[in-house]
Amino acid sequence: MEPMKLYRTPPGLVLDRVRCWTVGWEVAKLDRVLPSLTGSADLTVDATGLKAGVILDFEASVVGVEARKKESIVGYPIIAFHQFGTRVRVEIYAFVLADEVENKSVDA
């Protein structure tokens, strides 16, 4: 195997949006895979109304001054959003990967 080198825009020079991380967990397993919160949180997501088989997913991106707020991620509704930072801004979107029928129940 050869080493792979990715050339990316430095965070301070991003004008629109550069996705840097996505992770998700099955809702039924959240209590087993995530540690308990011990301090205050900048972003909380209420997963109590979500069905056990859906995936709660998070996407983190570096955003620039020309980035527009997202309404959905690959067609799935966003259920929570947080942006932080000043010179370099980072945003985190929480969304649910589910069948279309299940997505409609999340929109409320």
Q: Care to describe what's here?
A:
- This protein has one domain (11-106).
- Helices cover 10% and strands 36% of the residues.
- It has helices spanning 30-33, 100-106; strands at 17-26, 55-63, 72-73, 76-84, 89-97.
- The longest helix is centred in the last third of the chain and has 7 residues, at 100-106.
- The protein is mostly beta strands.
- Residues 101-108 have low confidence and may be disordered.
* Order of helical and strand elements: EHEEEEH
The overall pLDDT average reads 86
Count of strand segments: 5
What oligomeric state is this?
single chain
Structural class: mainly beta
Roughly how many Å is the radius of gyration? Answer: 16 Å
Strand content: 35-45%
Uncertain spans: 101-108
Q: Helical percent range?
A: 10-25%
Strand order of the largest sheet: 1-2-5-4-3
Report how far apart the termini are: 48 Å
Domains (count)? 1
Characterize the main sheet: 5 strands, antiparallel
- Total helices: the number is 2
> How would you describe the shape?
globular
Task: Give a quick rundown of the structure.
The protein has 108 residues and is mainly beta. 10% of the residues lie in helices and 36% in strands.
